[in-house]
Design goal:
three-stranded antiparallel sheet, Ribosomal_uL6-like_a/b-dom_sf, Ribosomal_uL6-like, rRNA binding, rRNA-binding
C-alpha cells in the first residue's frame, strides 16, 4: 500500500471538490483548479474528507496512487493558502521592477529583460527580492525557474538571480600569475 496514497485529504471549510469523468475540479476561497483524473484510481468524498483507493493492484494503479493523492492535496492547499517562491537578485547595479503583469529585470545585459507573467501568477518586488505568488504549485515553481534562468548565479562572485536561501557553491578565482 502506498504510504502517501492511503492518507485521506481533509477539506477545509469553503473548499468544494467535484469529481468528473476525466478531471477533478477544486473550488476554494482563492480560486479554482482542475487536475486530471486517472482511471485506475477511485475517488470517494465523505463529508469533509477525500479518500483515494486503487481499482486493482496493477503496476499502473500502484504508480498513480500516491501521485494522484499528492496532486489533489496540492490543489486543495493552493485554493486555500496559495503558494509562493522568493527570488533574490545579487549584483552591483542589478535591479528588478514589477510593471503591471510583467517583471522587468536589469541584470547586466545591454537591455532590460521584460518577463511577462502568465495568467494566475502575481509578483511583488521589495528591494532586491522578488516574490512569485499563485494557487497552482507547478506554475509558481515553473515561473520562478524561468525567471532564474534569465541570469543564473555564477560561481565566482555569486552574481545573478537565485532562490531565497539557496547556497551557491563558490569557486576560487585565478591564483597568481606567471613570474
Amino acid at each position: 500500500m502506498s504510504r502517501i496514497g492511503k492518507n485521506h485529504i481533509d477539506l477545509p471549510s469553503g473548499v468544494e471538490v467535484r469529481v468528473g469523468i476525466d478531471t477533478i475540479e477544486i473550488k476554494g476561497p482563492k480560486g479554482a483548479l482542475i487536475t486530471p483524473r486517472h482511471e485506475k484510481i477511485a475517488y470517494e468524498i465523505e463529508g469533509s474528507t477525500v479518500r483515494l483507493t486503487r481499482v486493482d493492484e496493477s503496476r499502473a494503479a500502484r504508480e498513480q496512487h500516491g501521485l494522484r493523492r499528492t496532486l489533489l492535496a496540492n490543489c486543495v492547499e493552493g485554493v486555500t493558502k496559495g503558494y509562493q517562491k522568493e527570488l533574490e537578485v545579487v549584483g552591483v547595479g542589478y535591479k528588478l521592477q514589477v510593471q503591471g503583469a510583467s517583471v522587468v529585470l536589469s541584470v547586466g545585459y545591454s537591455h532590460p529583460v521584460n518577463f511577462p507573467l502568465p495568467k494566475g501568477i502575481e509578483a511583488k518586488a521589495e528591494g532586491n527580492k522578488l516574490t512569485i505568488m499563485g494557487i497552482d504549485k507547478q506554475l509558481v515553481g515553473e515561473v520562478a525557474a524561468q525567471i532564474r534562468r534569465v541570469r543564473p548565479p555564477e560561481p565566482f562572485k555569486g552574481k545573478g538571480i537565485k532562490y531565497a536561501g539557496e547556497q551557491i557553491r563558490r569557486k576560487a578565482g585565478k591564483s597568481g600569475g606567471k613570474k
